[in-house]
């Protein structure tokens, strides 16, 4: 029996458009991972903006006692959420999410002025590839790294208010030097889409290194000219825009 032409056309249109009629809903979970010499409180402005837009946000407070401990802390936070997640890392946090991002819940990675190591690479090997402007990293006798308070504002957060920068230098989290020497086993960006933010005036990570790493990973790149390393604090609106683009896909 032949269908009338109008009904046949409608049937074909419905069949052809079925896949796109109900596109996957945007991801609504975001996990934020801070970098070295800072803590999770720096994500406050980003968190508030994301929550205002309906996202569920979790902030990792990794101990920075070893790379393994930091990855486990991130995995613990990922496990606390239901549904797909955008995983975000700042600075050394980029190395952490590169390993922890292999969690099946993670559908997208966002690197904020961050390291993006490949298999076998370490944070330190990337630093040595293109050294940063800062020479202020010091080491304690028991093997922990910190950023000299005398240069903290200039090298980490030059575009933040002076009183805020001073307190950050006083409250910075020291990082085990061994964490920078830990090699990546399985880089998540090899199998998942990534977005990268370049801080144009970054003194803690060479901006050219950020550009090179993001290009290698085929990340979608946003550059914030004139921004310090602490772009997530000085330009939270830009960071949120990138995270929300990652939440919309494409996801593998």
TrEMBL record:
Secretion signal span: 1-21
InterPro entries membership: AB_hydrolase_1, AB_hydrolase_fold, Sec-Metab_Biosynth_Hydrolase
Keywords in alphabetical order: Hydrolase, Signal
All residue ranges annotated as the AB hydrolase-1 domain in the record: 30-241
Highest taxon above the source species: Bacteria
Record-level Gene Ontology MF annotations: hydrolase activity
Protein name: Alpha/beta hydrolase
PANTHER family associated with the record: AB HYDROLASE-1 DOMAIN-CONTAINING PROTEIN-RELATED, ESTERASE_LIPASE_THIOESTERASE DOMAIN-CONTAINING PROTEIN
Pfam family membership, one: Abhydrolase_6
